Amino acid sequence: MRFISESEICRRLNWQQAIAALHQGHLGARPVGDQFFIGDAQFGLFSRGVVLPGYGAGIKLASIFPDNAQISPPLPTEHAAFVVFDEQTKAVSAILDGPSVTRFKTAADSALAGSFLSREDSEVLLVMGAGPIAQALTQAWLHTRPSINKVILWNRTPEKLTPFAALLRQQDIAVEITHSLESAIQQADIITSATSSTSPLILGRWVKPGTHVDLVGSYRPDMQEADTELMLKARLFVDDRSAALWSGDFAIPLRQGDITEDRIEADLFDICKTERIHRTREEITLFKNAGGAHLDLIISQKIISQSDE
Asked: Cys-Cys crosslink for 58: which of 2, 113, 114, 297, Cβ 3.0 to 4.6 Å?
C-alpha cells in the first residue's frame, strides 16, 4: 500500500489524460455504489463508495468545514482521502490525496460532458466560484474548448478572484471579474458554477439561447444553483442519475412537481457510448455534475498506472 500525495498527482496527470481516462471508463460496465452525508452546512462528514468492474473498488472519505476559509491564513474547506482496493485481492492498494483527485475528476467530468454538449464555437466562459474546484474547471474548459477567448469570473466576494485572474492573464487569457451576475450570464456561451449556494443564482430568464450550463456546486438536497425556469427550458443531462437526483438542483424541483425524472435525457455513460448528442445552435443544455465515487476511482487508477510507469 502506498500514499500518493498532491504533488505527485499533479506531476503525473494532465487534463488530456484525465478526460481521456474518464471517457474510457464510461465505455464499460456501470458502477455499483452508495453515499452518505452526516452533518449540516456548518460541518459535514461525506463518504462515497463504489465497485467498478475493471477498476476495483474505492471509498472517498471527506470532512467539509466551510469556516476554514475564514481562518488567517485560510485552510482548505475540505480534507479528504480516496482509498483504492485492488480488483483481484480486494486489499488496499493505495491512498490518494482526496482534494487533488476531486479537482481532477470534477473538472474532467464537466469537460468531458461539455465536449459533447456545448457548442464547439463557444467563446465566452463564465466561472462562478473562487475555490480550487472553480479554478480547475476553468483550466479544464480552456483545454476542451480552445475557441474560448474570454473568461468572466464571479464570486460573492470578488477580491478572492484577484490572484486567479492574474494567473490567467499570465496565460494570455482575457479575464474580467464581474460584479453583475445577470450581465455575465447574458454574455456567456458556457456557464460553469461551483458555489455552495442554497438558493438559485442562475436564473432561466438570463440564460441566452445556445448556452451550455454546467452545475457543479450543489451536493446536498438543500443546495441549488439554477432556478426552475432554467430546468424547464433546458435539455437535461447528468453524470450519475442517483447522485444528481439527490442534489438540490434536481431534488427541489422534483419534490415540488415542477419536473419529472424522465426529463433527464442521458447520463455520462449514455453520452460517451452514443458519442454524439445532436443539438441545435439555439438549444440550452444543462449538465449536472453530481460526482460519484466511480469518477474518483477511474482517476485514481489512472494516477496509479502513471506512477508505475
From this structure: 297
Q: Record the cell numbers describing residue 60, joined without a space.
A: 472517498
Same domain, 286 and 165: yes
Compute the residue count for the chain: 309
In the chain, count H helices and then E strands: 11, 14
The angle at the Cα of 10, spanning 41 to 14, to the nearest 5 degrees, equals: 105
| Per-residue confidence band for 309, with pLDDT thresholds at 50, 70 and 90 | low
On whether the pTM is more than 0.85, the answer is: yes
Domain match, 126 and 215 both? yes
In this structure, the answer to whether residues 85 and 148 fall within a common structural domain is: no
Number of structural domains (the chain) is 2
DSSP string, 226-248: B-HHHHHHSEEEES-HHHHHHSH
All residues at 6 or more sequence positions from 254 whose CB lies less than 8 Å from its CB, including other chains:
245, 260, 261
- Rounded Cα gap, residues 274 and 20, in angstroms: 16
Which set of grid coordinates corresponds to residue 193?
A: 458554477
Nearest-CA neighbor of 82 among 272, 226, 291, 254?
Answer: 291
Query: What is the span of the domain harbouring residue 174?
Result: 107-292
Cα–Cα distance list, 297 to 24, 25, 91, 105, 291 (Å): 13, 10, 15, 9, 11
Q: What is the CATH number of the domain that holds 192?
A: 3.40.50.720
The Cα 55–Cα 159 span in angstroms is: 42
